[in-house]
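Researcher: Quick one. two chains, 500 residues in total.
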Amino acid sequence: MIQTFRIKRIRESSIEEIEDWVIEETPLTIVVNGQELVTVVCTPEKEELLAIGFLGSEGIVGKIEDIRDYSVDGKTRTVTITLNGITIDDKILSRRRLVTSGCGRGISFYTYEDALKSTEITQRIEISPERAFTLMKQFQRQSSLFLRTGGAHSAALAKEDILLFAEDIGRHNAVDKIIGEALVKRVSFGDKILLSSGRISSEVILKAAKIGIPAIISRSAPTSIAINIARELNMTLMGFVRGKKANIYS
Amino acid sequence: MIQTFRIKRIRESSIEEIEDWVIEETPLTIVVNGQELVTVVCTPEKEELLAIGFLGSEGIVGKIEDIRDYSVDGKTRTVTITLNGITIDDKILSRRRLVTSGCGRGISFYTYEDALKSTEITQRIEISPERAFTLMKQFQRQSSLFLRTGGAHSAALAKEDILLFAEDIGRHNAVDKIIGEALVKRVSFGDKILLSSGRISSEVILKAAKIGIPAIISRSAPTSIAINIARELNMTLMGFVRGKKANIYS
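Model:
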């Protein structure tokens, strides 16, 4: 996930040549039922989980039984997935290309209106401020890729503690990786919290809503649409969770 | 560009209700020659420049004369552009959906190989470390939306000083807005520097290359592909420009 480059480092008026760590970026094509669905640019790790999570957060699959088999080809940078009784119809592919504001993947095959219609959180979950602070602290300690390269986003699924954790150049990819891992490991979503290092815009909220995660905690800012969607869908949304501070937006 | 929300603010163990500023996020559809090209999610400001810049950084137009006319419909959130003797053929639309790692827009209609073939920087530009430090300082002082909401990216086009500046929830959108403004104002690209608040991944480099900007300075990290492309195309790439420190990657 990291490459070493020989670069020139400037400090005040001195310049020296050093070896430096840089986060790896590489394309990954997701093929579903023999059809190329999308190519994302991501950090090469947990590719199959990213692909499965993508299908989950797009509302195409809801449980691991929906997937007959999957495989990764490292050479062609392709994840091939065969679904169980689910077809990717032209309706999904021809939907208006809603290009989102996220890092790591900016495409969603469903629309804003779709999501608002289809999902509302009914399960009750309680999060004390102390728990939010503690989870965020644990979360940041795990972000080793960011610490080494300064160029990564992370996401986690948590309950009392952090259960699943992933990093990627894209904040969406990081979310998809943990959703994929949860699907594969049969971890339920309805009683969990999604943690994110990045800003919360509409499509991150919609990803969580689509798969049924009731709460999102981020150390960054939300956007206006994200707040509106969270309130509409009865989701918990906390932002700017830093130290002993936080904002509750919904 | 900012909306006010009533939120709950936690500080240590106290919770109080306050009014808070949140960055606005809204969809914008770009229609070219009567055909819907793409819908991006962006901050509602300079929409026509964003759309024109998008066409520029996608290599569809190269100068303002390529555009016969353009108009913004604030109600339907649509920018309608008619091109001068340029057709958007199916080749462009059917190209593999390369979904990028960027914020604000994650789709490019050209591929990595396309870009590598089509552009190499030959114009010479000199940037002293002092100039990079000074430009970055000016740049950050202008980022008022970020200062107020914590959720914005900014981009600028600079020579001795900053000439054009834009902010958006998406770092790509911010880049497209200044490319659009430069096209409209007939500002040349070959002797300019692109400044960005965000990470530099492949598609930001390709945007700059496609329109002919020879140098990029960012306060954040680059990715591995971005460095490789910059070196391949003979572009200048500086990252982590903070205070009197900087890294030269290419």
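Chain B touches chain A through 62 residues (CB under 8 Å).
Researcher: Thanks, that's what I needed.
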